[in-house]
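Box 3.1 A note on notation
Throughout this textbook, protein chains are presented in two layers. The first layer is the amino acid sequence; the second is a token string describing backbone geometry. Keep the layers aligned when reading.
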Amino acid sequence: MCGFVGIVSNNEKFMNDQPLEKMMEIITHRGPDDSGVFKDKYAKFGFRRLSIVDLEGGHQPMKYFQERYTIIFNGEIYNAPELRNQLIESNEAHFDSHSDTEVILALYHYYKEKCVDYLKGMFSFLIWDIEEKHLFGARDPFGIKPLFYRKLRYNTIVFASEKKSLFCLHDPAYVDGEAAFHYLTFQYIPEPHTATSEIEKLPPGHVVTWEPNNPLQISSYWQPEFSPKEEKTNFLSRILLAPFRKRKLLKEKENMLTSIQETLMDSVERHMRSDVPVGAFLSGGIDSSAIVAMARKLHPSLNTFTAEFDRIGYSEGDVAEETARALDVNHNRVKISVEQVMNEFPTIVWHMDEPVADPAAIPLYFVAKEASRHVKVVLSGEGADELFGGYNIYREPHSLRMFNHIPTPVKKMLKLIAHRFPNGVKGRDFFLRGCTQLENRFVGNAKIFSDVQKEKILIPGSPEWKTDRIVQQLYKNTTKYDDVTKMQYIDIHTWLRGDILVKADKMTMAHSLELRVPFLDRDVFDIASRIPSYGKVHKNQTKVWLREALEEVVPAHVLHRKKLGFPVPIRHWLKDEMYDWARNWILQSETDHLFHKINCLQLLEDHRLGKYDASRKIWTILTYMIWHYQYMEDHSHQHQNNSHQSNII
């Protein structure tokens, strides 16, 4: 796991004027073990290394084939040993190291842009071909590793593993108003856009190419597609063929459960490959417990880590402790105080690069800090919910199925009637959701502000800014899916890459810790994509078949436990200990051109008085304001004593 910056340009002088060393220095936390630089007439690369595999031979930028190719690479290729052997046998390839970095270079030499089809892992990389004067880059299929870029003059493109490196450039960056609008809906800014209009992300599963006389080109090499095996039969055939149908379905299910367990075990084994100690995060849920149970078989002295808060109902520490005892692993618990959160939250936002208002980033930051004292690599359960149907919201189509039989005109009338009832009236929201098509009510796992609510918070922008625009194009690709699969598809393209994986990468790399996610493996996805909707959710349960597949792996007290996640007591804090802290941030933030501050303060006051729970809305506003303070306001003098935050403006 590492960090890099790269610059390509038609103009050598303009390229060399860019502050490469400063851009590298600001991401030292991503790679404290080593650094390196490459320069030629059209390209300039800088690299920071966190040594995980081939500790002696993995120096970057790395060259290959008589120094024709140079690469900078962030991530891990888990099937690198197999690929190396295949390249030697099929192509008589030569290797000078055991590094997965060199495997990527050899693949590119022999297969060019098709090299990405062979890779199993997490990655973002850039390869410069000095002979062809051709840049090739790629990002992994799920977006586990980030890659930001910015276009400048003279056909100059600047790339970076973290956006903060691009704030070091001489050209200023400006707040994107539409991005702020969408942020208030999602609590993050949907890719490929960022909070600043000049900087974008390379989408997951995409490659990028550039040549001195040609503009940047971006294209897709992989997209997630579901193919759930739903049986379509009429009523009569189901009655007549019931005995045969039941046996067939049971056999298919048994085969699928076996495939789930075996494929996941294979993925965990690959993700355990390392030349440094590996640990795992352990919560009270099935995802992390399954990863730990499988990893424990391969590494009996496994270290596990859990974060918790000292408040009833906001801790999974006891459940995680029970799981750790059942699995016989070395368990470590981290308790977090509200004072620690207030002190560290600006640093958390700084490391996040972008405003991401998921409170779960807080325990992740502190548990990563503790884990980094023991290991350099941790396994985690991200991705299981999106692939196997783990979110409680995915049960909604089942609870609303009665509305499928109500004629559209009647639903329109019921919706009008429901709108007339005051907020909080029992049944109001049920009828509103049931009478609204999925495409018009579900925009992803989080929906903080509605477009109407934003009018009180955000300074008016363009009337063309609509939340629906973000997801409607995605829904066009889901016409053949059932509603549960549609929701998964939306979350994989928004929530997973914009929230879950961002905080996973940034909160662990803040402490020079590599996080690996065995569920987000293309082989695992291939199995999960074929599970029918009834194998994902039913009335009272999520991840139905995953739970059944793991019955012999996961301790019984975890198997059917209700999903809790990483709960954070911001609802209580913002009423009490954090009230003054939050109010001061709102008052001092130089965001009057973006927010109606008087309404933001009123929202905080209403929450304090207990009129309603506005904690997620307040947290979303606060996170953006602190991000704006860190990156868009000239407060660099306040960070001179913090090596992570030195003069980023």
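The longest strand covers residues 69-77. The mean pLDDT is 91.
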